[in-house]
Amino acid sequence: MRRRRNFTRAIGVLIAAAVCTISTSLALSLTTFSTDASRRNTYSGNTVESIDYLFTQQQTLQHMHVKDHDCNYDCHRRDLLTTLSSFICLSAASPALAAGPEGNDFEAPMNGLTRQIRTSVVKGAQVIDKIDSRWERFSDNFGLGDKRNQPKRNVIDAGGNERSKKVFKSESNNGNVVMDEAFADNLLKRCDEAFLACLKTQNIAAISKESLLQKINDTTNLLRKSFFKVSSQVNAQEEFNFNCYIHFRVYNEILVNEKVFFPSFLKDFESSVGKLILQKTSLLQDSATKTTLTERLTNSLIITDAAATLLQNKGIIDSWERSIPPDDDIEDWATTSKSTTTDNFYVSSDLEYSLALNGDVTLNSQLLLQELGYRLYPSFGRWLVHEAVLQCFGNENVKVNIDDYYMDTSYNSNPELFEVKQVLLNIVLERD
Fold it and tell me: Around 282, how many Cα atoms within 13 Å sit in the side-chain half-sphere?
């Protein structure tokens, strides 16, 4: 009987060794995928190209390869980690199995085996992740690896054929353009008007213009010392960013106190502000001459550039970049009324392109408001582009959806060094 128990324990140790090795290899594969994906998602250089690459990442992963010596280097490092983690798992598993209870011949050792396998797999994955993370940071600090110094590949997966992306971008201001303070103040006035008007549509008339301004002044006096030192000089960009934070914080506090139904209010507010800004510009003066859907689509891309240029000239942003949709996608979108699926192909009725706004002066106020849990924040670029593009199509059944993302244009494996430098708008044109 004792020989049988010893034989059972020996078999359990061997099974634990095999399962730990296999499980650790699977954990390594997941870690490899995550690490390589993070390397490929390097937001450096032309970030509009990066986010387009991000949207087609799952397809592009199948066609990207690295140099042989880089592969060999990574394989050697992974093999070393596999060996170390397997040793750690075995060291942790064997004593627990050997110390199993004497009362049961088979059930107790197997229960201990399965429990220890799960524990060992988790510990092994944690060890691998820590080692790999430290190596990544070490490589970042000293610029190790040829892949870190190579120019970013800028391609779109097209059924195995690579085609270069096209991007249209502006020249950077480099701090040479002074903010138009009158335009900036007018933006906040339009926001006040839209906020009060949207409250009335929600049957809330308790907030008047005078009471709103009083709340804004009181909040300004309360928080200004927290943002600026008494002896410090504040430039126009910092002052506008602070004023945006104050206005939108007051807006959000009123919405919470009055228990406003937020989804419908947000939609009306963003649309109202976008229309009020458009009324003061001449962005849509040539839109009436466009008749065909293709012409209106082309005009919408031009209007997108014009809206970004307006914000740049007024000193709201430093520069901008826009991706150019492929001609095939434009043709498919213009000639297909709805998403079509057959046995051989699928044609989508959506057209996507991206607009990156670099150096948005309201960036800090946007982030701070969202960190406080508020969902209404100053996104003038998104509101302006949304209304301008929407009005380009007139009576056409076209929906415009824009999502904003906060990007760090430089890559580093240390998440503590993440710094938002860009607001990227993903614009989707959808046909009904």
Answer: 2
Single out the residue of 220, 133, 225, 191 nearest to residue 378, CA to CA: 191
Strands (E), 192-332: 319-324
The amino acid sitting at 2 is R
CA angle 184, 185, 188 (to 5 degrees): 95
Query: Under a CB-based contact definition with an 8 Å cutoff, are residues 20 and 120 in contact?
Result: yes
Cβ atoms of 176 and 323 within 8 Å: the answer is no
Helix (H) or strand (E) holding 403: strand 398-407
Task: Give the span between the Cα atoms of 269 and 271, in whole angstroms.
Answer: 5
Whole-angstrom CA distances from 318 to 52, 144, 243, 334 are 21, 32, 19, 33
Tell me the pairing of strands 155-158 and 161-164: antiparallel
Q: Quote the pTM value.
A: 0.66
Tens digits of residue pLDDT in 388-410: 999 998 877 899 999 999 998 87
**Is residue 420 packed enough to be buried (19+ CB in 10 Å), middle (13-18) or exposed (0-12)?**
middle
Q: Which of 243, 224, 240, 228 is nearest to 180 (CA)?
A: 240
Q: Take residue 389 and report the two structure tokens written for it.
A: 């593009």
Which two three-digit tokens encode residue 76? Answer: 């050697």
Cβ count within 10 A of residue 53: 22
3-state secondary structure of 408: coil
Each as own residue / partner, the long-range contacts of residues 259-268 (CB below 8 Å, 24 or more positions apart, any chain) are 260/199, 260/202, 260/204, 261/202, 262/375, 262/376, 264/202, 265/198, 265/199, 265/202, 266/375, 266/376, 268/198, 268/201
Q: How much is the average pLDDT of 9-30?
A: 54
Please report the pLDDT score of residue 264 as a whole number.
Answer: 94
Fill in the amino acid letter for 166.
Answer: K
| Residue 422 phi, psi (nearest 5) | -150, 140
- Residue type (1 letter), 119: T
Residue range 36-95, pLDDT digits in tens? 444 444 444 444 444 444 444 444 444 444 344 444 445 555 555 555 555 555 554 444
The number of beta carbons lying within 10 Å of the beta carbon of residue 410 is 14
- DSSP one-letter string for 358-377: ES-TTHHHHHHHHHTT----
Q: Which residues pair with 324 in a beta bridge?
A: 166
